[in-house]
TrEMBL record:
<protein>
    <recommendedName>
        <fullName>Pyruvate kinase</fullName>
        <ecNumber>2.7.1.40</ecNumber>
    </recommendedName>
</protein>
<comment type="pathway">
    <text>Carbohydrate degradation; glycolysis; pyruvate from D-glyceraldehyde 3-phosphate: step 5/5.</text>
</comment>
<keyword id="KW-0670">Pyruvate</keyword>
<dbReference type="InterPro" id="IPR001697">
    <property type="entry name" value="Pyr_Knase"/>
</dbReference>
<keyword id="KW-0418">Kinase</keyword>
<dbReference type="Pfam" id="PF02887">
    <property type="entry name" value="PK_C"/>
</dbReference>
<dbReference type="Pfam" id="PF00224">
    <property type="entry name" value="PK"/>
</dbReference>
<dbReference type="GO" id="GO:0030955">
    <property type="term" value="F:potassium ion binding"/>
</dbReference>
<keyword id="KW-0808">Transferase</keyword>
<dbReference type="GO" id="GO:0000287">
    <property type="term" value="F:magnesium ion binding"/>
</dbReference>
<comment type="similarity">
    <text>Belongs to the pyruvate kinase family.</text>
</comment>
<dbReference type="InterPro" id="IPR015793">
    <property type="entry name" value="Pyrv_Knase_brl"/>
</dbReference>
<dbReference type="InterPro" id="IPR015806">
    <property type="entry name" value="Pyrv_Knase_insert_dom_sf"/>
</dbReference>
<feature type="domain" description="Pyruvate kinase C-terminal">
    <location>
        <begin position="416"/>
        <end position="529"/>
    </location>
</feature>
<keyword id="KW-0324">Glycolysis</keyword>
<keyword id="KW-0479">Metal-binding</keyword>
<dbReference type="InterPro" id="IPR015813">
    <property type="entry name" value="Pyrv/PenolPyrv_kinase-like_dom"/>
</dbReference>
Amino acid sequence: MFHRTESIDDIGLSRILQTDKSNTISSLTKVICTIGVKSRTVEELSKLLEAGMSVARFDFSWGSHKYHTETLMNLRQAMKNTKILCATMLDTFGSEVAVRLAAEDVSSFDKDAPKTPLEMKKGNKVVLSVCNDREDQKKMVATSEFFPVVNCDSLCEIVAVGDSIFIGQYLFTGSETSSVYLTVESIDLENKEIVCTCNNDALMRGVLLTVQISNVGEKLPTISRHDENDIVNWGVKNNVDFISLSFTDSAEDVRKCRQILDEHKSFHTKICAKIERASALKNIDEIIQEADGVIISRGNLGTELPAEKVFILQKMILARCNYAGKHAIVARLVDTMAEAPRPTRAEATDVANAVLDGADALLLGAETLRGNFASETVAMVRKICREAERFYDHESFYNAQISQRKIEAGEVSQAEALASSAVRAGTKVGAKLIVVFTRTGETARMVSKYRAPMPVVSLVIPHLRQDSIRWVLEGESDARGALLARGIVPMLANPQNSEANSLLQMVFDFAKKKAGLVIGDRVVIIQKLSGTAIVKVQELT
């Protein structure tokens, strides 16, 4: 029998009103934080790490390489100060069309934004002007009648009269006071200008506006020259762990990104396909198969899909990612916490439902990029996740994954059989922890695929690899690469002390200190003995 999680029927009023007295805010579900001007200092990054940030997202929709490098150096110092491991994610600009209202590098989203918002009036005309030269772009000033568009040289060629265009604040919430809907009236190809009519009143604020155009997704390139430069000259150079490939439309987009990484020997960097357009949905199965993970960008998708369809799309994509064992990430959850210390009731429920739907990680945007309560948001989201995880139906999910149909089809590898056996053993004996000895972290990620109800420590053993000119000690990248997987706690073993019992005791000491385990608690261990992989149950000592 599986160890039961709680059922809603088991819960009484006293349980709901009971104060959470645990001294931890950890959860199996991970949190990704977008780093911005307010959260990029060593002090603020340390707070985010202590609150539960697992991955730091560097958004290349804005900011120079120098700016992001300074932030990365601060993150590394924060990790050193807190002794907390954190992965890095480069989010490409992609085919996002934008209007800049301030310089590329800003010190404050509030101070550097125009003092007076652009006032848009229903029925007024506004011209979108395409400018290809970066120096000329800096000289152009946006007004309520004139928007200089960047990052889309071919905009005039791909739009048509009658198309709908949505323009909102970067990481917009969808509020009609900060976003405007336009209709294309005419196109001047010679002067590269598009004349539109405003369909609603709006006050446009911020340093960057994003532009969404209906029905043109497949005409826009996913990886631009700008993106390739960012990937090669910043991502590869700084050994990033994940690429968030914005506006992925097909598996070919993922293959192109992987080719760029492989050409520069960045084999460890994983690719998360960011689903932002309705046009990507017809290729979703191929995208999931090709990518290492999928990010459901509900902000952009929400402008292209009927509101009533978004929830079922989320459930469908998460289920397919879970089945394939790929990272499943949901974005845009607690927008109001950018300005308020508590989420709305609907947002708290949304976070919990994302967990119950099978999300590996939740991605925070404006909340940590420009919000006033960044670390508080991370702590709150992880508390909601932890509560929701108590009601996740592990048994049903496990049975679906290990169904007889899959076994008969020969789809279960030896590593997967080992991982599923560890989860089965752990739930049967009521284990509090699974420990996986690994060199690459792959076995631990396989355990995560079966949604163990207890944490999984991925103990990465560093190893030497010879490249064309030297020997390289590897392991840290493999440890960080596991930080997106649900339930995995990566640890990097000391390369000078690889004796199994000593390493296991190190994990036990960590578990007692950080996870509240006590002597006598049962632990499931996956390791190799004399070349044979085994699963064993051991009591904590």
